Amino acid sequence: MIPLREDASCPLCGRFSHPSVVEPVVEKDPYAIVRCAVCGICFASPRPTPAAMAEFYERYFAEDPLAGYEHYREGEAWRARVARHRLALLGRFIAPGRILDHGCATGVFLDEAVNAGWEAYGVEPSSAARSLILRRAPYVKVLPPEDLATLPDGMFDAVTMFDNFCYLHDPIGALREFGRLLRPGGVLLSIGALDHGPAHRAPEPGITHTFYYSPRSVARLCRAAGLRVLMNRTIVKNANNPGKHPFAWLFQEVPWVRNLFFRQHCFVATPEGGA
Ligand SMILES: [Zn+2]
Fold first, then answer.
1. What is the value of pTM for the model shown?
2. Cα separation of 148 and 48, whole Å?
3. CATH superfamily assigned to domain 65-271
């Protein structure tokens, strides 16, 4: 049987000082959220092991029709709209070239990226989601996470991650890897939940974000990983999942109203020393 949970040290300063000095925030049975007394980041400890997360992703797309695959399929039209918004934002920083979407799910974003002139690569831990992409979008090259390290330095003009950053087990390590994969002047774009509010205090059981970031901690994580931040702010557009908010759900066909109920965080970074 695979171990389901593990203790963690602070994702920001755990690399430099340990053991982490932590204060409890909330229990999320069988996990817990703690706050680092040194830098203030909240993170899960104990948290799901990488193996437990891999199993969760596999089930998310392969088995659970409400939570995963069907949910993704039903939402494809608005996901495509969100993808076009995100590509427009990316376009403010870089022209189309080769793109890697980390945690690409069923590939809706990459499909739109190809339409916009990008050569598309995706990384996705779920084999069910990968085989779906192979069937419906064979022009997207999709890899399991373990193959990321085999890709050459500077291969990409852009790396993207959506609702993905907060699930990384080693955010600084991942940011360094994205920096390695980007050419000089290439950009990383991340959009996801900003959790310095009450979200991480809700004692929901089960799988949890591995850490909770703020604009300030994003800046520090990027600096520690050798990335220069070009943009780092909360955005109200590009609602992620309208089902999660009753008012957003009511107004889901009126995006500008729906988006008022959603605040996400966006950051854009480039390898230090690049153009
Ligand atoms: Zn810390």
1. 0.86
2. 22
3. Vaccinia Virus protein VP39 (3.40.50.150)
